[in-house]
Structures are given as structure tokens and as C-alpha cells.
Design a protein that fits this description.
By secondary structure, the protein is α/β, with parallel strands linked by helices. It has a single domain, classed as NAD(P)-binding Rossmann-like Domain (Rossmann fold, 3-Layer(aba) Sandwich). Helices cover about 45% and strands about 10% of the residues. The chain has eleven helices and eight strands. It has helices at about 1-10, 20-25, 50-60, 75-85, 100-115, 140-165, 195-215, 240-250, 260, 265-270, 295-310, and strands at about 40-45, 65-70, 90-95, 120-125, 170-175, 225-230, 280-285, 285. The protein has an eight-stranded mixed β-sheet with strand order 3-2-1-4-5-6-7-8, with helices on both faces. It starts with a helix and ends in a 5-residue tail after the last helix. Mean pLDDT is about 95; it is low at about 15-20. NADP nicotinamide-adenine-dinucleotide phosphate binds next to helix 3. NADP nicotinamide-adenine-dinucleotide phosphate (NAP) binds near residues 10, 48, 52, 75 and 229. Belongs to the short-chain dehydrogenases/reductases (SDR) family. It catalyses: all-trans-retinol + NADP(+) = all-trans-retinal + NADPH + H(+). It is an enzyme of class 1 (oxidoreductase).
């Protein structure tokens, strides 16, 4: 119940003005950049639905070659063909990626590196929330495994290609829920105690800390890394909780549409004024407050080393 309550705090406070103030407020910040992405290659994880799909639609409209990286290829193909038809951009391509399985992540990266010469934007968007206690194929707690470790490994495997294609950007979709998280090094996989709401918060804090440490390590490379909160968005994210599904329906008027929810991801991916901005956290297309735990560099470094150990990689 504590975890669910924390997640309810995601519902936005009232306040923004506009022609219809309520709707304008709920819609949140909009990416105003008209940047074109012809010739640019983008990977978006979890782009078969929700925020990821709308991010893919926007970047495809800008002319990018968009790799829709998702675990359900049929669902991905349905989304991709809809985007191709609407935008006229035929370079929206579906590739299989299951972030709950490091073998699948390695296969995805291997195929991508064999097929694509460049990578300019990596959007680590996929996520699970309120998952009943379960483990990934590699024995990681599901939220930590998919939301953090899966993207950590994916970024590691693709980083050289991003560096070669610089200027390049890494965009990590975190959440306001990171405020409720902590990195429980003594029980990372929730074996001793588990709360699915808190497990989500912990994994979203991990996204913020990963971004911070990654940006520090990438200083001077022209590869930037930023994280963001998309807002409270009407998507399938609540699907694992009947309580949250019900609440999302009741409060749907106060939630962003997926397209509105994609604005900050698009902003971090394309905005000209962010060319050399790195290690920051955004919400509604502007810098946002990061919790003290999300600014703890010692924890960020420790999480980095522990993540490498868990994944059996050396990333100096
Ligand atoms: N919605 C919100 O209010 C909200 C608020 C704050 C942050 N966020 C963040 O926004 C991001 C996108 O969420 P959303 O709201 O768009 O939710 P969504 O509609 O549920 O989309 C999540 C995406 O992640 C994919 N995914 C889940 N597990 C995966 C795995 N093991 N391997 C590969 N892909 C996997 C899903 O694929 P399937 O369709 O195959 O399951 C889906 O494409 C998440 O990181 C979430 O934490 C959302």
C-alpha cells in the first residue's frame, strides 16, 4: 500500500494557464524544436506502445531511421506500420529486444552493430511497474533487471557506436517516482523484503544515478546522457495492478496522453539548446528537481560497480 501511495503522488498538482486551462495544464510542456533528423539513427526501447511509440512517431516525422526495440515483435510491427503509414517514413524498423534477458540484449546489440554503421540517439524508454515479485532470466528482480540493468547493459554494448557517431545523445526515461526510491545494496533483488511499488521507485532512482555517473564518464566525448520524468501518462504501465488500472481510469482526465507524455523524451533527444547539456534531469521540457538520493555521487559510483559485477562486464 505504501508503494501504491507513493505512485499516486505522481498525479500532477493543478496550475497551468492556457485557452482551456485544465487541459493545457494536464498536457504539460511541449517540445518546440523543429529539428530534423534526416540521416540520423535512433533506437527506442519499448516503442511498441505508450510513450515509446509516440516518441518513435515524432522522431520518424523528423526523418530519423527509427529502430523500434521491443520484446513482442508482432506488437512492434503493428506500431511500426502505423507510424510508417502516417509519417511516410519507411525507415521505421522493428527489432527483437527482451530487457529481461541478457542473452536477448546481447543478440540485439550484435545484430544492430552488424547492420547499422551509426547510432545518434539511444532512448532507454521501456519499463515495468508494479510487477508481482519475479525475476528476470538472469535472476535479477524484475524492476531492477528491466528498468535499470537491462538498459545499463544495452548502453554498454552500444556506447562505442554512439561515440563514433558523436554528437550523440542517450536519453533515460526515469520518473518522479525516483523520489521514493533508495538503492538497497544489501537486498537489491528484494529477496528479504519486497514491495512492488517501492521496487519501481528504486529502479527509477537507479535510472537517475546511472545517467549521472554515465554523463560524468562521458565528459568531453560529445555523447550526452540525460534523464527525465515524462509526467503522469495514460499508458499500459499500470497493467500489473488492478487498483492502479482503476485509478488511472478514474483520474484519466488528469493524465497526459502518450503523445503529451513523449514531449520531454523528444525534447531531450533533439532540442538544439541541449547540444552540450549532460547529466541533467528534465520534466515538462525543462530542468527539474532531483531528489537528494539522486544526487549522491558515491551511491552512483557504487551502483555502477555493482551493476558491472551483476552483468559480468568491465566498464571503466
Ligand atoms: N506512464 C506514466 O505515467 C509514467 C510516469 C513516469 C515514468 N514513466 C516511464 O515511461 C516509460 C514508458 O512507459 P509507458 O508509460 O509508455 O508504459 P507502457 O505503455 O507500459 O510501455 C512500456 C514499454 O516497455 C516495454 N517493456 C516492458 N518490459 C520489457 C522487456 N522485458 N523488454 C523490452 N521491453 C519491455 C513494453 O513492452 P510490451 O508492450 O511488450 O509489454 C512497452 O513497450 C517507462 O520507463 C516508465 O517507467 C511512465
Amino acid at each position: 500500500a505504501r508503494g501504491h501511495f507513493l505512485l499516486l503522488l505522481l498525479l500532477p498538482p493543478p496550475g497551468r494557464a492556457g485557452p482551456c486551462p485544465a487541459l493545457r495544464y494536464v498536457a504539460g510542456g511541449q517540445c518546440k524544436s523543429a529539428a530534423k533528423l534526416d540521416g540520423k539513427v535512433v533506437i527506442i526501447t519499448g516503442a511498441n506502445t505508450g510513450i515509446g511509440k509516440e516518441t518513435a512517431r515524432d522522431l520518424a516525422r523528423r526523418g530519423a531511421r527509427v529502430i523500434v526495440a521491443c520484446r513482442d515483435v508482432a506488437k512492434g510491427e503493428a506500431a511500426a506500420s502505423e507510424i510508417r503509414a502516417e509519417t511516410g517514413n519507411q525507415q521505421v524498423i522493428v527489432k527483437k529486444l527482451d530487457l529481461a534477458n541478457t542473452k536477448s540484449i546481447r543478440e540485439f546489440a550484435e545484430n544492430f552493430l552488424a547492420e547499422e554503421k551509426e547510432l545518434h540517439i539511444l532512448i532507454n524508454n521501456a519499463g515495468v511497474m508494479l510487477y508481482p515479485y519475479s525475476k528476470t532470466a538472469d535472476g535479477f528482480e524484475m524492476h531492477l533487471g528491466v528498468n535499470h540493468l537491462g538498459h545499463f547493459l544495452l548502453t554498454f554494448l552500444l556506447l562505442e557506436r554512439l561515440r563514433q557517431s558523436a554528437p550523440a545523445r542517450i536519453v533515460n526515461v526515469s520518473s518522479l517516482a525516483h523520489h521514493g526510491g533508495r538503492i538497497r545494496f544489501h537486498d537489491l533483488h528484494g529477496d528479504k523484503s519486497y514491495n512492488r511499488g517501492l521496487a519501481y521507485c528504486h529502479s527509477k532512482l537507479a535510472n537517475v544515478l546511472f545517467t549521472r555517473e554515465l554523463a560524468r564518464r562521458l565528459q568531453g566525448t560529445k555523447v550526452t546522457a540525460n534523464s527525465l520524468h515524462p509526467g503522469s501518462v495514460r499508458s499500459e504501465l499500470v497493467r500489473h495492478s488492478s487498483v492502479m488500472t482503476w485509478l488511472w481510469k478514474v483520474f484519466s482526465f488528469f493524465l497526459k496522453t502518450p503523445s503529451e507524455g513523449a514531449q520531454t523524451s523528444v525534447y531531450c533527444a533533439v532540442a538544439e539548446e541541449l547540444d552540450s547539456v549532460t547529466g541533467q534531469y528534465f520534466s515538462d521540457c525543462q530542468p527539474a528537481y532531483v531528489s537528494p538520493r539522486g544526487r549522491d555521487d558515491e551511491t552512483a559510483k557504487k551502483l555502477w560497480h555493482v551493476s558491472c559485477e551483476l552483468l559480468g562486464i568491465q566498464w571503466d
